[in-house]
């Protein structure tokens, strides 16, 4: 968004310090001018804010059109502009992981607070999230700290532009899993990022609810759609949000049913079973 120039420069410096081959970088200004960046970093300034998935899709297309030195790009990293790679071996670990496992499509990094080292429970993309230091197969990934094999994007498409904010990673993850790819959470690949609450965004409650409905309508077998959304309705009520938050949530929930969600391509039942075996059946 162009409002964190110091944090962006620190992130770019941490990328430049990665071991092994140089990591090519594109910075997308999502409806905002791009601050000064180091030489060799490509920039794209969009005239309007396309949202998180829309902005990242622009970055994806930039690499598809023109990879490093005209070569094919095999893996893309997506990093929040106020994050910082904690170690210099992250890129090499990514290369090794993808080379060792041809079924691996996406890697989700661990996010840790730079001051405390703590990882928020919501940043561990599995139900059993009490131990963030345990790496495992998972069913979704973190949007601001991940690596995706470009072959996955070529096969199943990019992030859903219309989501704008919230659940776009799970939409891509479900499509990737349905195509036979796997997703790993790696505790040893760390992005330092200040602890925050997602509800700081004014649109949080509405978009979380709207996109949850879109996610189900787009990806789940018809029989699971009411089960999945019913479970999340009960969970939302159990969390006892404030009256304004609950009003916004129900407004988004209604919007999810009454507005177009994009093309529907329900996952195979064997994918439902795969998600269940991985510890997160697609009803929660």
From TrEMBL:
Instruction: Give the transmembrane ranges.
Output: none
UniProt pathway annotation: Cell wall biogenesis; cell wall polysaccharide biosynthesis
Q: Does the keyword Transcription apply?
A: no
Q: Which residues form the Glycosyltransferase 2-like domain?
A: 3-155
Positions in coiled-coil regions: none
Entry keyword Transferase: yes
Keyword field: Glycosyltransferase, Transferase
Q: Which SUPFAM superfamilies match?
A: Nucleotide-diphospho-sugar transferases (SSF53448)
Give the domain of life: Bacteria
InterPro entries, per database record: Glyco_trans_2-like (IPR001173), Nucleotide-diphossugar_trans (IPR029044)
Query: In the record, what terms sit under GO molecular function?
Result: glycosyltransferase activity
Family membership noted in the UniProt record:
Belongs to the glycosyltransferase 2 family.
User: By its UniProt entry, which PANTHER family does this protein fall under?
Assistant: GALACTOFURANOSYLTRANSFERASE GLFT2, RHAMNOSYLTRANSFERASE WBBL
Q: What is this protein called?
A: Glycosyl transferase
